[in-house]
Amino acid sequence: MQYYIVRYCLACLLVICFSGTGFAHRVNIFAYVDGDAIQVECYFSKSQKVTHGKLTFSDLKTGVILHEGTTDTQGMFRFHPDMNFLESGHGLNIQLYAGEGHQNHWQIEAEELEALLPVQPARQETESAPQPPVTKTLHGIDCNELEELIGKIMDSKLTPIRQAIAAQQDSTPTLQDIIGGIGWILGLLGLATYIRYRPRQQ
Amino acid sequence: MHISEGVLSPVLLSCGYVLTAAGTYVGLHKADYGRLTTAAVLASFFFVASLIHVPLGPGNVHLILNGLLGLFLGWTVFPALLVALLLQAVLFRYGGIAVLGINTFDMAFPALLCHCLFRSWLCKNNIFRIAGAFCCGALSVAGASLCTAAALALSNEGFLTSAKILFTAHIPIMIIEGCLTVLIVSYIAKNRPGLLGCAQS
């Protein structure tokens, strides 16, 4: 008996030693506008990042490939879209190829990309009579500078929220999923047994 | 080992479904309904085993246990794996519905081949039993890797490199699964020899 206990303990130890907490079947991608660029995060799980995953950035409307890149060791990539694309008013599709048949994509709508467009200077009211440029000020602060400053503050405040949203994309199987799956298999077993051995009418 | 949706060509996806449907039909036709519980328990093992992963370099691989299922179930491995992979696709989002056919065939076909090659070894002496169990566990994973690699390579030439990596990455899993299958078969041979079905053969 002790022999079997020892054998089982060794088998369990073998499995536990080689097992981790991450799951590598589904690759996740999350992208958002961050400052003057698009930040892309790619991961299999919270602890398993996609290193050297291939990223393809394409126009959501036309499908034209705009840029290709590779994630770093942290599964991150920063993309600076060119002005022509931003002015087209199209959305962006980001395709991730993580290798071994794993891929996923993320879309950013055009409205979200508008934040990357530079702020247009205020148009002159009368072009016929050139006047020295008037800069709107609020208590002595330039409005454009103020807008830029608020943008930076908002970016820093929103980063944790964005990361929390990214974490929610990580659909790691829960205990309920596992038990539910086993329940389904046993339910199908019951159904098959019933169909096979149900009382038949003479 | 699960191929994601959108990777393979429609022709290959259709072929996967056709082959899996044929295998499942034969499996259900040949199923020993007296051993349905064994099939359900093994399908549950497979369903859960995919959650145990082995970190390996930039990626990681997971236990498959298709060899164990093939060894005991024979043709029934097709319906058993189909159900387990369907539940993984729905509940865990591993693989997907479109690639369910090819994923099932990739894992079930090598397991069936190993069953045909090594099943009779279990009824011989201890050395043959251990060798048969190890080969079945290890070679089923190797076969599944090759099938997945072939599917990726056939669908898109760019995947050929990653397909080679796939096979290399699963070498540790082959060894682990070979050892696990030996442990399980040895235990069954000593405690529940009836499950091996040697008396009937």
Report on the architecture of this protein.
The complex is a heterodimer of chains A (202) and B (201). Chain A is 38% helix and 24% strand. Chain A is an alpha+beta fold. Chain A has a domain at 28-115 and 135-176: Sandwich (Immunoglobulin-like), CATH 2.60.40.10. In chain A, the strands form three sheets. A four-stranded antiparallel beta sheet of chain A has the order 4-3-6-7. A three-stranded antiparallel beta sheet of chain A has the order 1-2-5, with helices on one face. In chain A, a hairpin with a 2-residue loop joins strand 8 and strand 9. The longest helix of chain A has 27 residues, at 143-169. The model of chain A is unreliable at 11-24 (pLDDT under 50). Chain B has 201 residues and is mainly α. In chain B, helix 1 crosses helix 5 (100-118) and helix 6 (126-155) runs antiparallel to helix 8. Chain B has helices at 10-30, 36-49, 66-73, 77-92, 100-118, 126-155, 160-169, 171-191; strands at residues 53-56, 59-62. Chain B has a single domain (10-196), classed as Arp2/3 complex 21 kDa subunit ARPC3. Chain B has a two-stranded antiparallel ribbon.
